[in-house]
Amino acid sequence: HPPPDGFRYLAGHFDRAQQAALVAAVRALVAAAPLYRPAMPRTGQKLSVRMTNCGPLGWVSDVTGYRYQPTHPVTGAPWPPIPLPLLELWAEVADFPHPPEACLVNWYAPDARLGLHVDADEGEKRAPVVSVSLGDSAVFRLGGTSRRDPTRSMRLVSGDVVVLGGGARLAYHGVDRILPGTSTLLREPGRINLTLRRVTVPA
Ligand code: MD3
Ligand code: FE
Fold first, then answer.
1. Residue 37 belongs to some domain of the structure
2. Nearest to residue 170, comparing CAs of 49, 5, 60?
3. What is the pTM of this model?
4. Per the domain annotation, does 1 fall within a domain?
5. pLDDT digits (tens, 9 = 90+) for 29-58
6. How far are the Cα atoms of 14, 23, 26, 156 from residue 88, in angstroms, in the given order?
7. What distance in angstroms lies between residue 114's CA and the mean position of ligand 1's atoms?
8. Domains held by the chain: number
């Protein structure tokens, strides 16, 4: 079966030097907005993925639900700004005439996973989600807009960019596993994923 319409996979979009610059920017923003383990709504069970955000809004989850908010749930501080290279990436690939408002930073230790889900907390569904992978490779799973649709498995490698627009925007997806030892970009085994999102509908 074909990938959903609106799925664009830009393999090797960022070269090694650009990836290293992005990692440095992520380390600086994590110093200001520490990674934490969000809890799932209702159950309060913590995700294995560690998260933080940059931008005017950030995605958070706790026992009361999922939402976007302007401050870090642990420190209470505003999220740090989105690094310029990521704003430039959005301008280049998003095909949407307004900037992203949130960049979710996911940190996967080698044993972390992300179950199949849909990104549906953004009011602006006409804008794509733009993803950047850094560090160890991930086995990524992409389905359709129904949980019962068939899924495909793909490898996401450091430097890859994925644009999820159109019919792919509301597709089910998740991360089955991390492949430790597949990259030397980071000083520790694991993977960083950055997702740029437009949250609000522009006036
Ligand atoms: C397909 N992140 O943060 S990135 C997420 O690798 C998330 O950390 C994964 O799913 C990760 O929500 C996957 C690629 C991605 C991002 C958003 C999508 C694929 C998507 C939205 C719709 C369909
Ligand atoms: Fe997602």
1. no
2. 5
3. 0.98
4. no
5. 999 999 999 999 999 999 999 999 999 999
6. 12, 16, 16, 21
7. 9
8. 1
